Amino acid sequence: MATTSAGLLLYRYRNGLIEVLLVHPGGPFFRRRDEGAWSIPKGECSADETGLPAALREFEEELGVPAPQSPFTSLGSVQQAGGKTVHAWAARGEFDVDGLSSNTFELEWPPRSGRIQRFPEVDRAGWFEIDSACRKLLPAQRTFIDRLIAVVPQK
C-alpha cells in the first residue's frame, strides 16, 4: 500500500545564492550512499493528520528543533519510485546542522541476527546550493527544487 508523506524544504540566501536544507537517511542501508539518496526533511502522515501539520511535526522529529515561524508556500506533491506520495512546503529559515538531534528507529541488524539496533532517522543534514542539491536529492524530489526556484525571489 502506497503511503503519503509531508515535508518542509527550508531555504536561505548565502552570497546571493539560494541554499536548501537536505537530510541524509540514517541506518545501515544508506551508510555508503550519497548522491541521489538525500531528502527534504519529511515523514509519513498519520491517519489523523495531513499536510502542513505533518510536515512541521516531521521537521522537528528529524532535526530536533521546531520548524521556523515563517510563511509556508506549497510546492505541491510528487510520487516517488516506490509509489509514496510526498507533499512539500517551502519556508525561509536557518538551521545549524551541527545541532542535529534526530529521533531513532529500531531494526534487526545484521539481518536474521536476532540483534535489534537503534539508528537515527537522519544521520546528517546539510545546506546545498541548487546544483549540488539536485545531485544529492532523490530523483522524484528534484521537482521540489524547480518549484522552489519558481516561487522565491532571486537575489
Tell me, briefly, the overall form: globular
CATH homologous group name: Nucleoside Triphosphate Pyrophosphohydrolase
What top-tier CATH class fits best? Answer: Alpha Beta
Outline the low-pLDDT stretches.
none
- Based on helices, strands and strand pairing, what is the structural class? alpha+beta
Determine the fraction of residues in helical runs and give it as a percent range. 10-25%
The quaternary state of the protein chains shown equals: single chain
- The count of domains is 1
Number of strands: 8
Distance between the termini: 43 Å
What's the story with the biggest beta sheet? Answer: 6 strands, mixed
Question: Count the helices. How many?
Answer: 3
CATH architecture: Alpha-Beta Complex
Arithmetic mean pLDDT: 94
Q: What is the N-to-C succession of helices and strands?
A: EEEHEEEEEHH
Radius of gyration: 15 Å
Strand portion, in percent? 35-45%
Fold-level CATH name: Nucleoside Triphosphate Pyrophosphohydrolase
